User: Fold RNA-binding protein KhpB from Oceanobacillus picturae.
Amino acid sequence: MREITASGQTVEEAVQSALEQLNTTKDQVEIDIIDEGKKGLLGLFGSKRAFVKVTLAKNKVEETQVYLSQVIANMNVEAEIKMDVVGNHVNFELSGDNIAVLIGKRGQTLNALQYLLHLAINKDGKQFYTVSLDAEGYRQRRKDTLESLAGKMADKAVRLNKKVALEPMPSFERKIIHSALQSNKNINTYSDGVEPHRHIVIKP
Assistant:
């Protein structure tokens, strides 16, 4: 972490001087005013310079990537991490030989890791990020599986003319089911239960 103490005739001037020395912008730093200074008589006599301490803010995205690599290492898995940032959304993509360990049964380990990353990147609360974590294209394969499951369960609900409850799943997976069935006029879908046991019910 880099920090600079700078001075100027005013606080604004001192801050600008520090930003130029750090080669950064105001939204990337934390500013601590040491002395606001004071204007002297006629702007000359008895004037006192303003002093500020300007610190480069931590890069939350890079910190979270380091955190992810440490968690993976502690799980005794070697994996390559690719990161992609679009606006306030960060996507991490994992690849490696023993990637199944990081995915877990029905993606439970991957979902847990994604939740930890969401907590880690948003812990200071200054800027909100959404996070997605994928491994060897698992998310797309899971999406295909869920959409296929949705179709089969909807057919079952209509055929038996009674409600069908699916297994508990995280909200973003429930959303896939809802989206897959929203154009089906023969059924309604809704979520029931309390996290982590919240699940979808398909009703004729």
About this structure: The beta strands are 3-8, 29-35, 50-56, 80-86, 89-95, 130-135, 164-165, 188-192, 199-203. The chain has a mean pLDDT of 87. The chain has three domains: 3-56, 60-136, 140-203.
